[in-house]
Amino acid sequence: MTSEAAATTQPEAPVKPSQSGWRLVMANLRQPKVLVMLLLGFSSGIPIYLVGNTLGYWMRENAIELSTIGFLSWVGLAYSLKFLWAPLVDKTNAPLFGRWLGRRRGWMLLSQLVAAAALVGMALVQPREGQLVLAGVVLDQLLVFGALALVVAVASATQDIVIDAWRIESADNSEQQGLLTSTSALGYRAALLVTDSLILIFAAHIGWSMSYEVMAALLGVGVVAALAAREPKPQAAPVAVVADHGPLGVSDAMVVRWLLAGVIGVAWLVYALMVGIRDDLSVSWTNAPWLALPPLLLWWLTRWPTGPVAEATWSRPLARPVLRTRDAVIEPFAAFFRQHGRWALIMLLAISLYRLPDFVLGPMANPFYADLGIDKETVGYVRGTFGLVATILGIAAAGLSAMRFGAFATLLAGAVLGPGSNLAFSYLALHGADAGVFTAVMAIDNFCSGFAGVALIAYMSSLISAGYTATQYALLSSFYALPGKVLKGFSGATIEHLEAGRGLLEAYSLFFVGTALIGLPALLLCLVLAMRKPDGDPVAGAVRG
C-alpha cells in the first residue's frame, strides 16, 4: 500500500485524551457521533484508489499503454488542490441539499452521490480504446472514462473537506476531538483495505465493472452517515482580513487579469491532459508553445504591481472574495517563513521531495504485477494479510522511534527506508513471478512506506505555528504531494522509453532503481537540516532526541 492515499486526507496529529479516567472515554464512545465518524471515515477512503493505483490494474489488463495510465493518474491532483475550493464549501450551502440538511451534511450528501454516480459511469464506459456515441455525439471512449475519473476525484476531495470540517466542529472538547480523529482514521484504513486488496479478489470473480459498481454502492455507507449525523452548530466567523469598507489596494484591471488567469489556467490544464491521455505526450512544434507559454502568462497576469494602483470600483464585489482567499492561503505560508527564516525554503524542499520516489512508482505498481503475471487474487491476498501487518508494524515502529529519538531522527531514517524499499521492486522484476519473493517485497514496501509516512507527518506537525494549525497542515500536506503527483504522470512514458532495446521487465527494473535514486536529494536536504542550530526551536532540538 502506498502512502499517497493516506497522505491526501491525513488529519493533523490527534490530541491525546487527558488521564482523567476511563469513564470519560467510555462515555464518549457511547455517543452516536463516534459511529457516524467511523462510517464517514470509511466513505472518505473508498474513492481514492479507485481513481489511482487500483485503476491502473484494470487499465493495464485492458491493454492500455503505460504512458496513458501514468497521465491519467493526474486526476489525483484534485486531492492536492482541494484547498482552492475549500472556502466555497466552507461558506456556502450545497445546491439542492443545503437548505434541507444544513451546510455540512448537504455537501456530504451531494459529494457522495456525485462520486457514486461517476463510479457507476466508469463501470459502464470502461477504459478501452475506441469511440463512444452519447446523444448522437461521437466521443473518445478513453477521454470520457478519464473525465468520469476526474469527477470522482473532485467529488471525493470535496467530501474530505466537509468531513474534516464536520469532525472539528462536532467535537465538544480536545479529548473528544482526538477520539473522533482516531475513529475517522480507522474507518479510512478499512476502506483502503477494501479498495486496494479485496477489490482485486472481487474483480477476479465478478469482473472489474461490477466490482466498481459494488464500490459505488459502498458509498451508501456515507449517505447513511450523512443522514444520521447532526448538523454542527454554526461557528462564529473570524474577523475578516479584508475590511468590508475602505480601500482594497487593488484595481479593476488587476481583478480582470486574475479572472482571465483563472480561465487560461483551466483551459491549459484541460489541453495538457488531452495531450497526455489522447496523444501520448506527442509534444511537437504545434503544441509545445501551448504547453510552455501559459505558465509564464499566468505568472504575468497574477503578479502584484510594485507601484500605487487606482482603487477598484465596479469589481469590488469580486475583489473582496479573492483577497480573502489570498489571505487565507498565503498568510499561513508567510507566517511559516517568518518563524523559520532562511531555513524555511530548505524545509519545504525536503518535504516536497521526501515521498517523491513513492509517488512516482505508485501508478506503475499494479500494471507491473499484471505484466509480471501475478494474478489479482494473489495480489489482493498478500496485500490484505502480510502487507497489512507490515504497514501496522511500520507505523508502530515510526511512532516508537519518534517518542524515543525525536521527530527529526525518525525523519532521517524514513528518508533512507522509503526510497530503499523501491530496490526490492527492481529485484522482483528481474527475479520473476515468485509468490514468496512477491510476499517479501510487499512486506518490505509496506513496512518502509508506513514508517516514512508517519515520519513525515510527525515532522510536518512539529513545524506548525500556533493559530494556523489546520490551514498550515493542509497546505503543507498539499505542498508535499503536489510535485510527486505531477511527476508520476510521466512514469509510464519513462518505462516505455527504457523498454527500447531491452525487455519490458528489465525496463521496469531500471525504472524502480531510478525511483530509488530520486530519493537522494531529500536525504541530503535532511542532513543539511540536521546541522541547524537549535536556537530555541523544538524541531532542531529533536535531532538530539
Automatic annotation (TrEMBL):
Sequence intervals crossing the membrane: 34-52, 64-86, 106-125, 132-157, 186-204, 255-277, 343-361, 381-400, 407-430, 436-459, 507-530
Keyword Membrane: yes
Tree of life domain: Bacteria
SUPFAM superfamilies in the record: MFS general substrate transporter
Localization of this protein: Membrane
Pfam families xref list: Acatn
Keywords for this protein: Membrane, Transmembrane, Transmembrane helix, Transport
Membrane topology: Multi-pass membrane protein
PANTHER family named in the record: MAJOR FACILITATOR SUPERFAMILY DOMAIN-CONTAINING PROTEIN 3, SOLUTE CARRIER FAMILY 33 ACETYL-COA TRANSPORTER -RELATED
Name of this protein: MFS family permease
